[in-house]
């Protein structure tokens, strides 16, 4: 018999914050782009509940965000299993580099090489080290 995996949303959220040395005092707002924002206190009132975090249908709002000054938590799921993913504001790289390709098709057209999907910007724009790195 398959027993559903029950998770308390509030406890899960606090545990994820602690994992990254954050507390509820670091939270600026909760909500989503489409819905609007609400306070951490509003969230806590509803989040002290259990849901099935295992495989099946996603139960927690898929666009729910917990937002801090330099981080946010967003909901992720795979095949119905769901969890919080911690995100931080990325640092701007030191070097400017104008891309030649953003897609596999563009890289194939520019460089004529056999590129497959799941490529990075660096891989798509690699031409034997011939691309310039400069400051605009």
Give structural notes.
The protein has 136 residues and is α+β, with helices and mostly antiparallel strands. It folds into two domains: 6-88, no CATH class; 92-130, no CATH class. The protein has four helices and seven strands. The strands form two sheets. The protein has a five-stranded antiparallel β-sheet. The chain has a two-stranded antiparallel ribbon with strand order 1-4. The longest helix has 11 residues, at 9-19. The radius of gyration is 21 Å and the shape is elongated. The termini are far apart.
Features:
alpha+beta, 2 domains, two-stranded antiparallel sheet, single chain
Task: Note the topology.
Layout: E1 6-8, H1 9-19, E2 27-32, E3 36-38, H2 40-47, E4 50-52, E5 65-68, E6 71-78, E7 81-88, H3 104-111, H4 121-124
In brief:
The protein has 136 residues and is of the alpha+beta class.
In percent terms, what proportion of residues is strand?
25-35%
Poorly predicted segments: 128-133
- How would you name the oligomeric state of the polypeptide chains in this document? single chain
What is the spatial order of strands in the main beta sheet?
3-2-5-6-7
